[in-house]
Specification:
The complex is a heterodimer of chains A (117) and B (113). Chain A is mostly beta strands and 117 residues long. Helix content of chain A is 0%, strand content 54%. Chain A is built from no helices and eleven strands. In chain A, strands 2, 4, 5, 6, 9, 10 and 11 form a seven-stranded mixed beta sheet that branches. A four-stranded antiparallel beta sheet of chain A has the order 1-3-8-7, with no helix packed on it. Chain A is globular, with a radius of gyration of 13 Å. Chain B is mainly β and 113 residues long. Chain B is built from no helices and eleven strands. In chain B, the strands form two sheets. In chain B, strands 2, 4, 5, 9, 10 and 11 form a six-stranded mixed beta sheet that branches. A five-stranded antiparallel beta sheet of chain B has the order 1-3-8-7-6, with no helix packed on it. Chain B is globular and about 45 Å long. In chain B, 35% of the residues are buried. The chains are: A mainly beta (117), B mainly beta (113).
Chain lengths: 117, 113
């Protein structure tokens, strides 16, 4: 149980285009989903937290107009990188948390490698 | 906010030996501490977790200990195998801020056959 999928697993796009990444919880309902960014050999950097049906809460320094997050259902959240530039190239990972307990864990997706040319 | 420090950054052990990774946290309100294993090019995978009302938890070759007073917790891997080679992250989570996780900087474990 507690499987989270991401699509696509990798994407290459041209500078100036937008890219959408999907995150799905396959066997549980995710009340909260998180989006992280990870640079090579570094830790996970939280970008934003989203609750189903609510606006996402962005971390300080993350541009909400550039990284659009939608959490339309209890099993799907999307991250859209708008007008992508080479500096947006990174490994993007989502996680999902379910249940009502305040200490439920986060289950991570396999990640999406974004390369902007 | 919470600050989690993790040591060592790299750890090399011989197959069969034990490995210990340590983390400290700053916020005494943190009450949940998961450990994740991340293989190259993949997402983190939960390997064990512990809640603040427990001092130790074990799952086969993996154990985690928590010292609330000192605000540190450790991951212990016994009888290491080459497939244990990966990057390990600790995290701490509190009751607020949607239960955000504060991650350590990671430990690259290399198990030499």
């Amino acid at each position: 149980g507690a499987v989270v999928s991401q699509h696509p697993s990798w994407v290459i796009c041209k500078s100036g285009t937008s890219v959408k990444i999907e995150c799905r919880s396959l066997d549980f309902q995710a009340t909260t989903m998180f989006w992280y960014r990870q640079f090579p050999k570094q830790s996970l950097m939280l970008m934003a937290t989203s609750n189903e049906g609510s606006k996402a809460t962005y971390e300080q320094g993350v541009e909400k107009d550039k990284f659009l997050i939608n959490h339309a259902s209890l099993t799907l959240s999307t991250l859209t990188v708008t007008s992508a530039h080479p500096e947006d190239s990174s490994f993007y990972i989502c996680s999902a948390r379910g249940g009502i307990s305040g200490t439920d864990t986060q289950y991570f997706g396999p990640g999406t490698r974004l390369t902007v040319l | 906010g919470e600050n989690v420090e993790q040591h060592p950054s790299t750890l090399s052990v011989q197959e069969g030996d034990s490995a210990v990774i340590k983390c400290t946290y700053s916020d005494s309100a943190s009450n949940y501490f998961p450990w994740y294993k991340q293989e190259l090019g993949k997402g983190p995978q939960l390997i064990i977790d512990i809640r603040s009302n427990v001092g130790e938890k074990k799952d086969q070759r993996i154990a985690v200990t928590l010292n609330k007073t000192a605000k540190h917790f450790s991951l212990h891997i016994t009888e290491t195998q080459p497939e244990d080679s990966a990057v390990y992250f600790c995290a701490a989570s509190g009751r607020y801020n949607f239960n955000k996780f504060y991650f350590g900087s990671g430990t690259k474990l290399n198990v030499k056959p």
